[in-house]
Description:
Elements: H1 3-12, H2 21-28, H3 32-45, H4 50-63, H5 66-81, E1 83-90, E2 99-100, E3 102-105, E4 108-110, E5 123-129, E6 134-135, E7 140-147, E8 161-166, E9 169-180
Antiparallel strand pairs: 1-7, 1-9, 2-6, 3-5, 4-5, 4-8, 5-7, 8-9
Amino acid sequence: MDVPGLLRQAAGELPAGLPRADVDEYLAHAEWELALDVLLDRGDDHPVTTSYFQILEEAAHRMGLERSAAWCAWRRREVLHGVIRAELRLIPGTRSAAIPGAGTVRPLWDTGLLTPAGAPDLAVALIWVEYAQELPPGGAGPVRLAPLTAVRWHHLEPGDRITMHEGGVTTGTATITEVVFPGPPDRR
Length: 188
């Protein structure tokens, strides 16, 4: 299927009653990237399925928009496992490199759980930097976290503080701003 066909297919998966005229207009004028952006926004604002983001991911790949494709894959994962957003503050002097924005860094996190011996039970989660290409050393900004084992994060609530660890060093602190767990399996 071609890119406009994929974008139309995704638009057809939106919940009933959402307007599609703007998407159709962008497609009629070969403004595929704008149509993709509108569909991504709608997917953030309304309940959609994993197949919705899979279709958009394929369209983004075909347009050569690799960050958008990575975002679609990230959002598909969030449909399945939930959304965890936080404000991350990196500790100055602990990292020499920026955190790339597209979900490639996966540090350990102290989320407050303990091992049977009473030590912190650290958990792995990928970081997606929101609204920026990267988070510079010593910087701060909003992030999304994708735990490798999401159920181990279900106890978190907005306002909770967690710490980021890399190579045995605490490199950041994060305050949870939003936690949304997935809906019923039939909507995934």
